[in-house]
């Protein structure tokens, strides 16, 4: 009873830590490794938008969706879509057939949806969108204003390495001002000499937008038909100053709340750990010395005659696990039946990763269902990698083909365990 209470207390402590430290997220079918946008403002108040979005697909895909929100007065035209993959750029055609390397456009009152058809097995691919949107800039009596959500909130995954460049149609714009509204930390650089604004952030959370607001002289967009007679500049400046103060206050309050929450969590964990430790100490059995004949028994340094998986099953009285699989691979490597090779993978988000490649040397081991399934399903029949085995785990059809051989392998070792159990004592009591 006390041991169960101890396990319950430790499990609750770990659950509290994981519950408050990080959210539980399902792995998406892709990641966005890079999101680059160039907004070229025109003298008529329109904008030519070029977006380069680099996907990293975790599994095979047939295409992607892209959305562009519009206001009541805006229209989108001059659309072009391309895909860059393996160093080659393919221009896609606008067709309703749904064939590979085509795209479809659906326009609603305030939303344009692009359905892009491009088959990808897995790995990186960059989708390039280019189009023109009118009425992006409003010319007021005392200033011109751009207030636009350049990245919308319909992305279900986080966007990494975001870079937005806004270029005005003129240089040397001394009265250029810029503000950025988003939910993450980043930087906004204003280059008045080049007439350019650069917005960067390491990561934009899923389902969150990035909005940019610019003020500059109306003469920069002198051909803009969207003109209003009211003054606007001072109102925008006061509004942005107020929002900046509110944002700073919210960040301070969020930091204080986080510190208080962490203090409370660790206080609870400390109390629970102390209670669990008391139960653990109270549950310790009284130590007695072994009989003299037991202490004088010689220790054998000889390796067990059984495979590692069988030895583990005997020691733990349970089915073999992934540790037994690793030991079995080492046994095969020692017998020159396979060769193990460590490989370095490409860097992801600044961190390098290593992979293990298993090469087949002796085809005789393929008579064992486990090895035959691993080399055939997770590899090419002659070798497989741990990264390839991981990808098989997220592909339902391939993963199911491994379940049978692995279960049979575990049952095989379990039967060998039962045949040896009459000869071996229960070591978990020693």
TrEMBL record:
Ranges annotated as spanning the membrane: 264-282
Residue ranges occupied by any Predicted membrane protein YciQ-like C-terminal domain in the UniProt entry: 299-393
Signal peptide range in chain numbering: none
Record key words, sorted: Membrane, Transmembrane, Transmembrane helix
A matching Pfam family: DUF2207
Residue ranges occupied by any DUF2207 domain in the UniProt entry: 32-216
Name the UniProt record assigns to this protein: DUF2207 domain-containing protein
Organism: Liquorilactobacillus vini DSM 20605
């Amino acid at each position: 009873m006390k041991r169960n209470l101890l396990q319950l207390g430790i499990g609750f402590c770990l659950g509290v830590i994981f519950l408050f430290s990080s959210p539980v997220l399902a792995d998406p079918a892709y990641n966005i490794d890079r999101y680059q946008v160039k907004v070229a403002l025109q003298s008529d108040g329109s904008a030519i938008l070029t977006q380069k979005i680099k996907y990293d697909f975790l599994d095979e895909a047939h295409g992607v969706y892209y959305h562009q929100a519009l206001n009541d007065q805006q229209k989108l035209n001059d659309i072009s879509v391309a895909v860059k993959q393996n160093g080659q750029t393919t221009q896609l055609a606008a067709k309703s057939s749904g064939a590979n390397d085509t795209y479809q456009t659906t326009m609603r009152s305030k939303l344009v949806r692009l359905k892009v058809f491009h088959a990808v097995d897995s790995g990186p691919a960059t989708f390039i969108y280019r189009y023109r949107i009118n009425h992006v800039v409003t010319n007021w009596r005392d200033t011109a204003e751009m207030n636009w959500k350049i990245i919308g909130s319909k992305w279900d995954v986080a966007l990494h390495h975001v870079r937005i460049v806004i270029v005005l149609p003129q240089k040397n714009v001394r009265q250029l001002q810029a503000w950025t509204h988003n939910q993450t930390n980043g930087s906004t650089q204003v280059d008045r000499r080049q007439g350019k604004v650069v917005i960067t952030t390491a990561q934009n959370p899923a389902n969150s937008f990035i909005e940019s607001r610019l003020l500059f002289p109306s003469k920069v967009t002198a051909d803009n038909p969207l003109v209003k007679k009211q003054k606007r500049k001072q109102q925008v400046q006061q509004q942005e100053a107020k929002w900046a103060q509110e944002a700073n206050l919210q960040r301070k309050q969020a930091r204080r709340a986080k510190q208080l929450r962490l203090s409370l969590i660790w206080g609870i964990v400390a109390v629970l750990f102390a209670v669990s430790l008391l139960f653990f100490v109270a549950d310790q059995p009284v130590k007695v010395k072994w009989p003299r004949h037991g202490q004088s028994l010689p220790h054998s340094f000889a390796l067990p005659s059984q495979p590692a998986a069988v030895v583990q099953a005997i020691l733990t009285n349970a089915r073999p696990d992934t540790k037994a699989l690793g030991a079995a691979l080492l046994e095969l490597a020692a017998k020159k039946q396979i060769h193990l090779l460590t490989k370095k993978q490409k860097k992801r988000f600044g961190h390098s990763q290593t992979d293990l490649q298993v090469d087949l040397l002796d085809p005789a081991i393929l008579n064992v269902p486990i090895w035959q399934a691993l080399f055939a399903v997770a590899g090419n029949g002659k070798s497989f990698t741990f990264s390839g085995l991981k990808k098989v785990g997220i592909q339902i059809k391939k993963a199911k083909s491994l379940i049978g051989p692995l279960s049979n392998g575990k049952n095989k070792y379990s039967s060998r365990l039962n045949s040896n159990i009459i000869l071996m004592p229960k070591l978990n009591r020693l």
